[in-house]
Write the structure tokens for this entry.
Amino acid sequence: MLQPTDRDLIVGIANSDAEALRGLYDRHADRVYNTALTYLQNTTDAEEVSQDVFTKVWRSAAGFKAESQVTTWLYRITVNTSLTALKKRQKRKMFGMIHSGHDPPDFHHPEAKMEEREENKALFAAIYGLPDRQKTAFVLSYVEELPRQQVADVMGLSLKAIEGLLMRAKKSLRNKLATRA
């Protein structure tokens, strides 16, 4: 039996087919969660964002334009939802609603090898401090390993703009990591 394509699942979701949503979720939940986790560096927040992403997919599937890949659309929703969650967290911190001893969070990505934990911790702290657009370009390109053109599509920018963001992100990360050494 043929597996439905992502686009078939989106059509099903647009027609209120909960099984289609389950199929899309099963296929992409790990990717959405890992992307959110890289941004938020907190498992609870990443789980919430993942739920929000699939809720948004359910609500907006009818508006999906097949001009891009479904994965590009999912990344766009995930990135935007993650950035919104980060801004909300920063506002709560500003108003003293959250007290955190760590800014950025003391974070270990679950896929990091044990012997590389300290290096990864420093890298994720540096990524956390990048401006949003640089962070997005870097995370999608180097953490999620998306092709540059798909990164450009997710961000709604030209390929040249993505390359510029990546150059600035890498330079900033090198500087931040060199000062830690």
